Amino acid sequence: MDPVEVAAAPPEAGPGPAWRSKCPWGAPNTASMSCSLADVMSEQLAKELQLEEESAAFPEVVAVAEGPLITAENVDTSSDLMLAQMLQMEFDREYDAQLRREEKKINGDSKVSISFENYRKVHPYDSDSSEDEVDWQDTRHDPYRADKPTTTPRKGFIGKGKDITTKHDEVVCGRKNTARMENFAPEFQVGDGIGMDLKLSNQVFNALKQHAYSEERRSARLHEKKEHSTAEKAVDPKTRLLLYKMVNSGMLETITGCISTGKESVVFHAYGGNATEDKVIPPECAIKVFKTTLNEFKNRDKYIKDDYRFKDRFSKLNPRKVIRMWAEKEMHNLTRMQNAGIPCPEVVILKKHVLVMSFIGQDQVPAPKLKDVTLSSEDMKKAYYQVLNMMQQLYKECNLVHADLSEYNMLWHDGKVWFIDVSQSVEPTHPHGLEFLFRDCKNVSQFFQKGGVAEALNERELFNAVSGFNITADNEVDFQEEIEALEKMNEDHVQNHGKKLAMFSSDGDPPIYDE
């Protein structure tokens, strides 16, 4: 086949002006190339022509990746491992580029910026981006952050001769203490002490460390108190759950609200629900919720740790159990008083630290305390003799001493006095039982004497009348000394013969104090 002229022939040189050869709009001088039709249809020739055009259009080709894993020189692409490494490297670079875009999008113009440095697959200095494109926030080193003080070597000093510096140097220790403050709790604001080159002495650092530790413990206590304690007129979640269960079971119809608050408990009013086979629910109930805060029970363990009924179960290491025992103790004391016929609230049920009793009052209005009610002289005299009789019954028949009897713990309802709040009541055999009885007699005697009851006995006469003793002392100091001697005698008797011999007999006479 005859060759075919593919390229056009060059223009003939003829006479003409010189500027024609330099005209930019003139036809370019191209070299002629002759080839066969088979060469024109060859794929290899097409690829070569395409590469020549690409090299002419893009004279400087930047490699997409550098390094031995992704270059095509001396690489055996038939290896699957090598191909996998090349693909992984390309994926890591694309992932890092996506992280940089996310950083730029989130940070914007904010002075405070974030960095995904820890999540990058390839370190910035290995990437294909130029050094100018790497922001300071993308690196671990912050040029505006002060460097931490260098550590002292194991030998304990640095330098030589006169320039030696030991680890006990004041400046070195001060800077180290400033750096250690960053280990405090996040809630403790320490500021930028390193940037200001702050030097803290050991004394100041130890004081700050102790204060930070105390603040951390205090915040933990406040959180615990909020979650697990009762407030003034509210209950914690566990107590609320107990009350919900009582209402859902039908024992209580509804809980109306708080009627009284005290140091150790909160009292709510509720309407009784359906009666059961073994329990009669009164129409109105009083719910006494003992506070689960431990502040009020720190000094009240003396009422329970020496009571033989709870002595074996008392544990000062677990104060929350003491609170439940406190509620259980009031239930047992009220049961004794109810069996003896002493006017007091009737126990309905006890659930942990929640005690349900009958309500002393009517239509959600509680009965007034004896200190708040105004009685006539006849009623006051009647109330005094009733209180005297109830104290004697409590001591002889119930074998109890109220231990906190006063006009604040006596109610006036239906023309008679009612005793309440007997959680701290103890037996006369308690090491301080007679002291508690004398204090009760003193409170009762002073109240009724101020109320105008001429027949009211003084505290010493009232103590002898209630206890059955005949202590003849001219003054109160000698009287209390004899009481302490009787308590000592009682304690020795209990230790020698056991607690059962120390209990009162059925006729109410205390054999321990028999003279």
What does this structure look like?
The protein has helices at residues 37-40, 43-57, 80-107, 170-180, 202-228, 237-248, 319-340, 377-396, 433-450, 459-467, 476-497; strands at residues 157-158, 165-166, 252-261, 265-272, 284-290, 347-351, 354-358, 361-362, 365-366, 410-413, 416-419. The protein has 515 residues and is an alpha+beta fold. Among the domains are: 163-227, no CATH class; 234-366, Phosphorylase Kinase, domain 1 (2-Layer Sandwich), CATH 3.30.200; 368-502, Transferase(Phosphotransferase), domain 1 (Orthogonal Bundle). The strands form four sheets. Strands 3-4-5-7-6 form a five-stranded antiparallel beta sheet, sandwiched between helices. β8 and β9 form a beta hairpin. α8 (377-396) packs across α10. The radius of gyration is 48 Å and the shape is elongated. The N and C termini lie far apart (153 Å).
Q: Topology, pairings included?
A:
Layout: H1 37-40, H2 43-57, H3 80-107, E1 157-158, E2 165-166, H4 170-180, H5 202-228, H6 237-248, E3 252-261, E4 265-272, E5 284-290, H7 319-340, E6 347-351, E7 354-358, E8 361-362, E9 365-366, H8 377-396, E10 410-413, E11 416-419, H9 433-450, H10 459-467, H11 476-497
Antiparallel strand pairs: 1-2, 3-4, 4-5, 5-7, 6-7, 8-9, 10-11
Family: Belongs to the protein kinase superfamily. RIO-type Ser/Thr kinase family.
Subcellular location: Cytoplasm
GO molecular function: ATP binding; metal ion binding; protein serine/threonine kinase activity
Largest sheet: 5 strands, antiparallel
* Rg from Cα: 48 Å
Q: Report the CATH topology name of the domain at 368-502.
A: Transferase(Phosphotransferase), domain 1
Strand order of the largest sheet: 3-4-5-7-6
| CATH second-level architecture of the domain at 368-502 | Orthogonal Bundle
| Mean pLDDT rating | 76
| Helix residue percentage | 25-40%
Low-confidence stretches: 1-14, 61-72, 125-141, 500-515
Q: Report the top-level CATH class of the domain at 368-502.
A: Mainly Alpha
Protein name: Serine/threonine-protein kinase RIO3
Keywords: Antiviral defense, ATP-binding, Cytoplasm, Immunity, Innate immunity, Kinase, Magnesium, Metal-binding, Nucleotide-binding, Phosphoprotein, Ribosome biogenesis, Serine/threonine-protein kinase, Transferase
Pfam families: RIO1
Organism: Turnix velox
